[in-house]
Amino acid sequence: MDMQPIAARPGNHNLANYEEKRASFDWEEVKKNFSWYETGKVNVAYETIDRHAENPDKKNQPALIYSAPDREEVLTFDQLKKASNQFANVLKDHGIEKGDRVFLFMPRSPEFYASFFGILKVGAIAGPLFEAFMEQAVRDRLEDSEATMLITTPDLLYRVPENELPNLKKIVLVGDSEKISERYINYYKETEQASEEFDIEWVDLEDGMLLHYTSGSTGKPKGVYHVHNAMIQHYATGDWVIDLKEDDIYWCTADPGWVTGTSYGIFAPWLHGVTNVIRGGRFTPESWYGTIDKHNVTVWYSAPTAFRKLVSSGVDVIKQFDLSSLRHVMSVGEPLNPEVITWGMKALNLRIHDTWWMTETGGMLIVNYPSMDIRPGSMGKPIPGVEAAIVDDQGNELPPNQMGNLAIKQGWPSMMRAIWKNPGKYESYFINGWYVSGDSAYMDEDGYFWFQGRLDDVINTSGERVGPFEVESKLIEHPAVAEAGVIGKPDPERGEIIKAFITLNDGYEANDELLEDIRVFVKTGLSAHAAPREIEVKDTIPKTRSGKIMRRLLKSWELGLPTGDTSTLEE
Ligand code: 6R9
Predict the structure, then answer these.
(1) Which keywords does UniProt give here (predicted)?
(2) Nearest residue (CA) to ligand 1, atom 15
(3) Domain stop point among 391, 412, 442
(4) Mutate to test the pocket of ligand 1, among 241, 302, 357 (most ligand atoms within 8 A of CB)
(5) 274 with 194, same domain?
(6) N or C: which end of the chain has fewer CB within 10 A?
């Protein structure tokens, strides 16, 4: 879809003049917003929670609004400070020290966030896991990180292979359990008795804060290691990109098992002291629109997979809700289909702003600003303080409009500092002073970046390179198609042919005529060489828990190959 740029809506945007800011930018400027700039005492938990709790004007403001089908709860900054202090005391009593790895394996809940900050307050490193992980996934991560403590719920405990984890000394159970021994700690009993005062462990900006495991295409998941210094970027992007204002009600839909759920579900909003909505429970269009309506959400950060579900659920549902509180909407995790942007303009009367970054980069790098024209399909431009380019395999910069490796000049605050116990892997990200992302993209002559695919997903058909995203975006413009995943299938003649897996919208039935219609639709709408030669209708498209289409898995299934690590596959 060739779409006209969408001009910025007038308004009081935090970053009004992007080009000017970029030209004169110095990270030192951002550092002045932190109390450690004056005091020299660093801990991200202090900056996010305690600092606001110490401010008489803010202490009784809701920090966290927890909303789940069976539970509603509000915690003010003061309450969250006290709850996390209590948990920090419990951790300390049980011997947890600076640098220890403490993992969280439980659904989003007020206890999750209190525990998370408790971990940071003692100077330990937090490792959040998706609650849906099964035994193997839990074992891999606890084993590799040599975690000494795990916080979980009694009903998830059966997925923790305790006997095979010699480093795991203690397990905190959030909920009632029969298990009583030296090894198990009852969250409620012990926090209830703990003091609400705690002396925060002051750390260095370069001390460990988080371990996020991400799956590669092969091998075991790798532990991406982040330090407190990342807060500088979380703060800056919360300001410029999320455009947070003091009285915003913010909702990031991501689970903290995914980096989006920590960097932008925890740090950025609370560094800015805004009210943060946390939703538990499963996705339905009604419950999502209902969350915005009920809590008057003003700023919303979500992912293409969710937006696509909302698009295909139609306009009748949306009409039952009042979404007029929304001011600003963003997306991350996968390329944002132009179709979805069009829907946003119609259904929400708002632009959806795409943002690009990775677990490894710790924070947003290439984004669309509220103050900037959006070119639908483009992920935008680099933030101030960040230099991005397209490079070849030797790390040489390529001219505009040429597809290559999306790369970032080393040295931004939220960059990972290591791959846990794997220095070789860490080194392999860098060429010639560039961090090479593994994504392929091009930059147009005006400096907008356009995503093409993960490098291993790019298709080469009869010598033409085709990004699967382009084809998928065109496919979902067809009225029958709900979701699409596109792969290259080896072909003796063409190198690869394009094969599309699709799911159909309600009311459509798979038959040859429909599939041919879809093929012709892509051919006439995009190009002949991008039209899928094979289309297969599925019930679902395999996705990661963060909503990424698992093209690698589609390909393995297609070719009958081993599926590799599937621990992040959504059920
Ligand atoms: C934050 C996050 C990183 C990979 C990245 C890229 C894809 C993320 C995107 C995007 C196109 C965007 N990705 N944002 N692709 N447009 N706006 O997603 O981290 O889970 O580590 O994934 O996700 O392929 O390399 P992570």
Answers:
(1) Acetylation, ATP-binding, Ligase, Nucleotide-binding
(2) 334
(3) 442
(4) 357
(5) yes
(6) C
